[in-house]
Amino acid sequence: MFETSRIKKILANFGAAQNARNQELIDQLEKFGVLPVPLVADELRYNRMKYSDAEKIFHRLFDIKDINVFIKGLGESKENIRELYKETIIRFGRSGAALALIEHLGDSDNMIRKMAADIIIEISDASVAPRIIPFIRHESKDVKKTAMDILSAIKAEKASDAIIPLLDDSDSWIRRKAIEALCRLKNRDVLPRLLALALEEGDPKVARPALELASEIGGPEHTSAALQMIKSSDLVIRQKATEAVILMADSTIVPEVMLFLKDDDVNVRRAATDILNGLKDTKTASALVKAMKDADWWVREIATDALSELGGGKVSEMIKELLFDKDESVRRCAVEFYCRVKDPSALEALVKLLEDEDWWVREKAITALGFIGDPVAIEPISKLLGDKEVKWAIPKALASIGHKSALKALSKLAKDDKTQVRMETLKAVGGLGGDEAVALVKTMALDSEPRIQEEALLILRSLTGRIWLLDEVMEEIKAEDDKTGGDEPEEAKAGDRLTEAILVVDLCKSTDVASHYGDSALYELMKELDKIVTPLAREAGIRFMKSTGDGFLMTFDSTLKATWMAVETLEKLASRNANIEEKRRMNVRFAINVGETRVNTSGDRVGNAVNMAFRLEGAKKEDITASHEGAKPDEMLEQNRILITEAVKCELEDKPKPEWCFLGFFELKGMTGLHRIYQLIAEKP
């Protein structure tokens, strides 16, 4: 009691003392042997001493003959104190401490048992193994586990022999822990037993470590056992078994794997195909070709991937036979192979596939022919320009072939109604290069889609080495048209009589704009309208165009082109108007008629058909004559509308997707009689 009081008094001085004084205090404590150790732990527990000071005291007072004092401290409730005892024993105890700690592996205090095991593992002295092995037979399963953990960690020489009997233990938990311990020992001789037990147990917690060990140290002789586990109903086991077989096996396993391709369970067939893919051996080719005909899409996909990586003439010959299989899924996989493996000998077969009834097969055949790069394929590919399901793939394929003769087909796609097709075409043309390609890109710069305009200007810069503005392109094309006569098949001459679709577009409330905001504001609006309608008109194939001051008069060789151009313009204006203030919005009215026009001496279009188009553009609701067939007057739009005559409606009736509503009978100024007038619904015809 007297010594305890003296020790506590010394410890009380640590907080206020300087380092030099602390050394003197530790010297004083050393005279008491290990008696101060638990008292130092109390000081640390109640935060009356720094950890560093407690550590110095423990290190000075440790003596191997008093090891049990420190072992007892391993059961402390506070973690930092337990760690201090543990660190001191490891640092100063080493082998002598390990022997003492072994006696506590069966301790009733779980914490002491755990800490003792941790220290023995940390010291890692294999010579103590004979003293630990008896604990394998301890009645407590926790003690058994602790002994297995230590033996497997220190890689003791007879550890495997000691642990193997536990594989037959009646307790599944012990069996599992024995497997884990044996796996950590990485004893190759034990692997067959572990795999057999994993297969028998069917427990992922058993199979996983066994299969991971097989992946690490196994060889071809272990693959059969692992292969059987791909039939497991557990996803983890199947995955681990598949990975293990791939890492261990060689081509000798292929016949056995092929048997699994016939299994009724799709998951088993998938795993088997994964294995064949992972082997990367040409001897697997025939099995993989059979897998391409599997009913499961995933099996077919993996088989196709694997064969694509193998490649080679023999593989290609086997795949060719599948190109005309009656099952479209098989044909899809076969043609996909040629999108990845370049084989000119498949060209003839791929050309035949361009006529396949399945759109996916046709599309991939186009891609594969582009990959082969033979100009012979250009003509058969060009026959699919009107195929809505696959035409978007044509530009890239033609660009891959890279022959100038592809420009003819690309020029047709440049006017396609699908933005995606035109964009792909533009990129393809840019990739070909040359004067003809530059000319086509300039034309495409006038596309109605801003994204295509921007891309075209970038491509022009790449092809010509200079920066282009849209206005420059328009002026250059216009100048060229003036020289060549534009796109008209024959230049119209004065006195000619032509049958044309006549389109009139007028800017709404142009007089109000000029009076409120000035002529310059109207000029800017008209300039902007010109930039919108001119590219669209050219894209539609305009024959004649002139300004009417606050609008335009245009003619086309078909009503379909005229209505398409009008609908496209309204869509562009709707997009423009959506994000600007009311006073800056641009609204228009369209009128379309069809009939005979005369070309006067100035090249202008005149005649009754032209006059009717102008009268129709200005029609108002109050001009409607009631009709039981007609729509209500309020269904007639005041602006952003497209009015068409009876003659136009008749021509559109046999065209795809024309939609209109009958407004009623109109008496048009200067036109005798009543005229049936229709309003076109703004959807591309």
UniProtKB/TrEMBL annotation:
InterPro entries assigned to the protein according to its UniProt record, in alphabetical order: A/G_cyclase, ARM-like, ARM-type_fold, HEAT_type_2, Nucleotide_cyclase, PBS_lyase_HEAT
CDD domains per the UniProt record, alphabetical: CHD (cd07302)
Any GO BP annotation: cyclic nucleotide biosynthetic process
Molecular-function GO term, any one: oxidoreductase activity
Annotated Guanylate cyclase domain residues: 501-617
Alphabetized Pfam families for the sequence: HEAT_2
Gene3D superfamilies attached to this UniProt entry: Leucine-rich Repeat Variant, Nucleotide cyclase
Free-text function comment from the UniProt entry: Catalyzes the hydroxylation of the N(6)-(4-aminobutyl)-L-lysine intermediate produced by deoxyhypusine synthase/DHPS on a critical lysine of the eukaryotic translation initiation factor 5A/eIF-5A. This is the second step of the post-translational modification of that lysine into an unusual amino acid residue named hypusine. Hypusination is unique to mature eIF-5A factor and is essential for its function.
Protein name: Guanylate cyclase domain-containing protein
Organism placement in taxonomy: unclassified sequences, metagenomes, ecological metagenomes
